[in-house]
Specification:
single chain; 147 residues; Rossmann fold; 2 domains; two-stranded antiparallel sheet; 7 helices; globular
């Protein structure tokens, strides 16, 4: 356990697996690039389906990356950007398409936000995400409301 957070409990609760040094070595071997500092320093400590992703990549099967954001503010702070900075590394290292889901529907369904405000925040957040330098030819960003 690091600090006050019970990481093994989180891994179990969310059905994840811890990221081992062997897994990091495998990423480096397959990409022929150094692992991202977020991996090297243990900033990301667990994963879901990374081994399946790497297995597919190793076989030459088509692979893609998928992440998302629940837009709740006009702009993203560094903590919000971390997953997208890491996704950019993965997109570049594996030359993979990236799908980003903006869950604006959750904000008006569960957080008392108007539909218009949720969609506006999704558009603003998309601008910040795009500014991370993602490959525009291989990145698909979509809103759930999609109006």
């Amino acid at each position: 356990m690091r600090g006050r957070t019970d990481y093994p409990k989180l891994v179990e609760k969310f059905g994840c697996s811890e990221i081992s040094s062997e897994l990091i070595d495998r990423v480096e071997r397959l990409t022929r690039k150094p692992a991202h500092p977020f991996l090297k320093r243990g900033m990301f400590f667990a994963h879901r389906d990374l081994e399946d992703f790497l297995d597919g990549y190793e076989r030459g099967a088509p692979v893609y990356l998928y992440t998302g954001r629940g837009p709740s503010s006009d702009s993203l702070h560094f903590g919000h950007l971390v997953p997208f900075l890491f996704a950019k590394y993965l997109q570049d290292a594996f030359d993979a398409p990236l799908v980003i889901q903006l869950t604006d529907d959750e904000k008006f369904l569960w957080k008392g936000m108007t539909v218009d405000e949720a969609m506006r925040l999704a558009r603003e957040n998309a601008k910040d995400i795009i500014a991370c330098g993602l490959d525009v030819e291989k990145t698909f960003i979509f809103r759930i409301s999609a109006t």
